[in-house]
Each structure stands twice: as structure tokens, then as C-alpha cells.
Amino acid sequence: MAAVKNVMDVFKVLKKTNCRECNEKTCLAFAAAVFKKDRQLNECPYVDQAVIESLGGNIETLQTMADDQEAGVDALKQEVSQIDLAAAARRTGGVFSDDRLTLKVFGKDFSIDSKGALTTEIHVNPWVVAPLLTYILNCNGLPLSGEWVTFKELESGKPWQGLFGQRCEIPLKKVIDDYTDLLEDLIHIFNGREEKGLYNSDISLTLLPLPKMPMLICYWKPEDGLDSDLHLLFDSTAEKNCSIEGIYSLGTGLVTMFEKLALKHGGQ
Ligand code: SF4
User: Fold this and answer.
1) Range of the domain at 33
2) 20 lines ligand 1 (CB under 6 A)
3) Do the domain assignments include residue 117?
4) Residue 193: closest CA among 205, 181, 180
5) Total domains, the chain
6) What is the pLDDT of residues 80-110, one digit of tens each?
7) How far is 155 from 237, CA to CA, in rounded Å?
8) pLDDT at residue 2 is higher than 70
9) What is the CATH number of the domain that holds 44?
């Protein structure tokens, strides 16, 4: 039986037309209600019976988020332990040595050995570990194009854009609105690099969470009664080196990490 790890796992089996036949305003709202067990997946008339059965029908088998997250990471570690780590190092922009693949995560070492054991130089939020391991498994090794694109402009980004905005861009904008020092922290703690006003933004900053997965944060301050704005951009090859789900998970994981950082520093 397939495991449902989060709202996104429910959302991706829906038709994403926001037709409202389930009496929810959007497919995302329906997915959230299913995940919370307020609704049942078979209340959307457009989900195949086979999918309903594979997800456990009424999703009564959902575990807690933490349990599920841990189980998901363990499964990924297991998968990584089965692959050729030397070949994975060549694909992912990492280094293989002493039975260990090491990747630079925000410029700091993150290693995994052939038994699936992790070693990191920095505290990596568990929400980020799963996308890191997924990247090791799926990265195709395409060189970066140097062309920045929005999430929506990625090949499979459009259907995910609403969810990405809600879970990544809006919360990140809020953190920066409330805690402007976050950008300084991103430079110092996460080896971010400030860029020169790209896209006429007030602040633009690149981060390198993974060797072939740079991200650009562009932030516009509030002005003349207009709200602030923020966009996260990716290299146009991002989806070739990480699936759209992986990019989405990495984005939400990073935002969760930044929110915790802001809280810890008393910004909110
Ligand atoms: S009925 Fe299904 S497709 Fe229509 S809005 Fe609800 S979840 Fe989305």
C-alpha cells in the first residue's frame, strides 16, 4: 500500500482543475482536508479506483507527519545504499572517497556512505534530508545553464505553482518581511551570495543548497502602499537534475528551516 506523506502526495493524484464538485474551493483545499482525514479521497469523482485503493481508500493508514518523515528518509537511505556512489558523485557534482559520497550543501560537507549512514558539517533540517537523498538518486548531472526561471516556467511547474506559492514563496516573504536580518543570516550561515538587484529587486541573493541546484531569492520591499513581493527562481535545468516534487520539497524544507532560524533569533 502506498504511503501518503503529506498534502502534496494527495494533491498530486487529483485532477487539479479546481472544479469544486467536491464542494471545496480548490483541489489543494480538498487534498488538505483528505490529509487531515476530514474528507475521503473517493469524494473526488475524478480519482481512479486503483489510485484510491493504492492509497488506502479513506487514508486511515496515515501515520503522524514525523513518523512518516522518518520512515521516508530511512527508505531513501536504503535506496541510496544500493547505488554506485562513485557514479552518483560524478552525476551530482559530489566527491567519492573512502566509501563515502560527499556533497556540498550550502558550501558545507554532507556525506553518505554505502551503508546509508549520514555525516554533516551543518545541522540539516530533516525536511531537507529527503530532497537531498532524492537528488542523489535522481540527478541527471546536466551542467547548469545559467538561465534563471520561475517555478511556473519549469516544465512541470504550472500545476504545482499554487501550492508552491502557498508553501514556499508566501511564507518566505513573510519571514523576510518580519525578520529582515534573515538575508544577512542566509549570507553568513548558508554561504549565500548577494547579487546586484536582479530583475529590479531590492534584494537578490543566490543560495546553493545542492551542487547543481542553485536558487535565486528576489525580494521587493513594500512601497507606496504596495505589499512586498518575493520570487524564488531556479536554473532552467533544475527539473532535469531533480524532479518537480524534489524541487518543491527542497523549497518547503528550506523555508521551514529559515522560519525556525528566524524564530530562534527572535525575529517573530
Ligand atoms: S472534485 Fe476533485 S478535481 Fe474537482 S475540485 Fe474537488 S478535488 Fe479538485
Assistant:
1) 7-54
2) yes
3) yes
4) 205
5) 3
6) 988 999 999 999 999 999 999 999 988 889 9
7) 10
8) no
9) 1.10.15.40
Q: What is the pLDDT of residues 203-236, one digit of tens each?
A: 899 999 999 999 999 999 998 889 999 999 999 9
Q: Are residues 179 and 239 in the same domain?
A: yes
pTM of the shown model: 0.71
Whether 258 and 192 share a structural domain: yes
Question: How many angstroms does the Cα of residue 8 sit away from the middle of ligand 1?
Answer: 14
The reply to whether ligand 1 has any atom less than 6 angstroms from the CB of 25 is no
- Tell which wins on pLDDT, 69 or 73: 73
At residue 68, does pLDDT exceed 80?
no
Q: Is 46 in the pocket of ligand 1 (CB under 6 A)?
A: yes
The string of DSSP codes covering 198-223 is GGG-SEEEEEEEETTEEEEEEEE--B
Claim to verify: residue 134 and residue 152 sit in the same structural domain: no
> Among 107, 103, 92, which residue's Cα sits nearest to residue 138?
92
* Sign of the dihedral defined by the CA atoms of residues 249, 251, 257, 262, in that order: negative
30 lines ligand 1 (CB under 6 A): yes
